[in-house]
Amino acid sequence: MAARMRKFKWRTNTIVFLALLSVAITTLYPLFYVAMTSARTLEDYVKNAYGLPKFFTLESYRILIDNYSLGTAARNTVIVVGASLATALIFSSLAGFALAKYDFPGSKVINWSFIAVMLLPSQILIIPIYLLLSKFSLVGHLHGLMFVYIGTNIPFGVFFLKSTFSAVPDTILDAARIDGAGFFTSFFKIAIPNAAAGITTLAVLQFLGMWNELLYAYLILPDQGMRLLTPALASIGGRYTTNQPLVAAALCITATPTLILLAMSSKYLVRGVSTGIGSS
Amino acid sequence: MTSPAVVEVGPVKGPTFAGGRKNSSSRGSLTRQKQRIGFFAALPAFIVVASLLFYPICYAVWISFLKTDGVTSKFIGLKNYVDIFAAPLVHQVFVTNLKFLVAIPIVIFLGLFSAVLLYQEIWGWRFFRIIFFLPSVLSTSVIGLMFRSAFTLNGPINSALISMGLTPINFFARANMAIFVVVLALIWAGFGYAMMILLSGLMSIDTDLFAAAEVDGAGWWQRFFYIIMPSIRQQLAFVSIINTLYTFTSLFGFIFVMTAGGPLYSTTTLDYLVYQKAFSAFDMGQGSALAIVIFGVISVLTIAQSKYLKNDDGR
């Protein structure tokens, strides 16, 4: 193995390890604290906010699900994110594959137009999109929000998958073509399996983006009963500042799926995050 | 021993993402029918983007010339822009945005610090890498609420201050204190992403350079300044640009849950002001005009930064 910076001596190693450990504790402790807070009663929290709870209770979670329809919010979130993610991925893969391997007239223009809109800030879009959706009476409907998520996620999706599909060797595709494979056979039988890792990476990134989105979700579904998780959490957190266990439980419900996803797919996330620089 | 990590973190340079042939040699053999299939495969995505992004952008430009609450509207030319440039509130909010930029050098320093230490492959470094990245997968509203709860008047930070015999601080009632808490949240949330980008730059450094430096007797700091820093220039530029963009366009979630812009507009950022103008004051025209001005500002900043930071990137 080639020397990187040369390995440190063990004493330096220990110091570096302790430095990293203290950064890790700074990162983890707030989350641990929130999880602890969510599992204790309000009286217990007021008396002793720092120690371990006297006993663990899921009472705050029960209140959130029963009284603040967080169960409905979770269901709506899954519907919106699931449908938008699936649609965006299908459209982006088709376009990405076509742009990578089918050199049709106009492909350059389409490619560049996607890259150009990727750089636009969301504030420019929010007002016209809101007005358009309300013109078509889509404000207050789940599929209004789905349209927004599909539209805003496609440009990066196409950009990302175009480079993924470019890496599929032409020789395999040519061989399949000689055997009589059409577009869809090449797409489903060769391109998708060969690009599975890239597609998974994109799916993870875009899932996180949609799950965590606040502005569109808040504006396009203004009705309390229709709220998605992240805006529901934001409004609970805004109103119940005195009941910290309740706010903490809402935080845990919103954050847990993303943390589980991180644990399961860290490999894909690590690689997806470093891909962004390729473009700059 | 180190190669799996290199493959895993550096796909930009790896075979998966850069290996494709640029010029498809099969173009000549493609019949017009196949070109048409390619066009139709790209069409759904293009239609969605055209109707949900291109059209709204043009619409936004049009709205910025109107006085409109979304129901009735009147053409007023450039008045919205004139009003924005004249308004003291907009100036104040712009300055507030500049204050939030304080977070960026700290984020980059912490990101670089942890990336360089992780690069030594200390025991458990992969685990640390994921831990540091953890805040990046959380929603800004989750992070914002965590910090708000922590720093609220009867929250844990103040009870810690009291138990140390100090007087509690009402963080969100004072302008600079409120900004301080938001900046703290930005740093906590953001350094892991910077670390990840910088680490991927470090991973792609040719290790022969270090071997050669070692032969020449270069010390740790010399290698840091003469090998590491020049090699990750591109990643540093990227992190700095992306964080600047973020500060001007994506603080909405933090501000919305932490301070709602207060006290008295002192933590209102440009993107939050767009939201307020459009959806609290129902002045969609001025909101759009402001959004377009922000876009102009960040375009200039991005171009300036990439010129300055990448001018001798000849690799």
Automatic annotation (TrEMBL), chain A:
Transmembrane segments: 12-32, 78-100, 112-133, 139-161, 182-208, 246-264
Localization per Swiss-Prot or TrEMBL: Cell membrane
PROSITE patterns: ABC_TM1
Keyword entries, A-Z: Cell membrane, Membrane, Transmembrane, Transmembrane helix, Transport
Domain (ABC transmembrane type-1) ranges: 74-265
GO cellular component, one term: plasma membrane
UniProt membrane topology term: Multi-pass membrane protein
Protein name per UniProt: Unannotated protein
UniProt organism field: freshwater metagenome
UniProtKB/TrEMBL annotation, chain B:
GO terms classed as biological process: transmembrane transport
Pfam families with a match to the protein in the record: BPD_transp_1 (PF00528)
Classification via PANTHER family: ABC TRANSPORTER PERMEASE PROTEIN (PTHR30193), INNER MEMBRANE ABC TRANSPORTER PERMEASE PROTEIN YCJO (PTHR30193:SF37)
Keywords: Cell membrane, Membrane, Transmembrane, Transmembrane helix, Transport
Membrane topology (UniProt): Multi-pass membrane protein
Species this chain originates from: freshwater metagenome
Name of this protein: Unannotated protein
Chief location of this protein within or outside the cell: membrane
Region (Disordered) location: 1-29
Protein location: Cell membrane
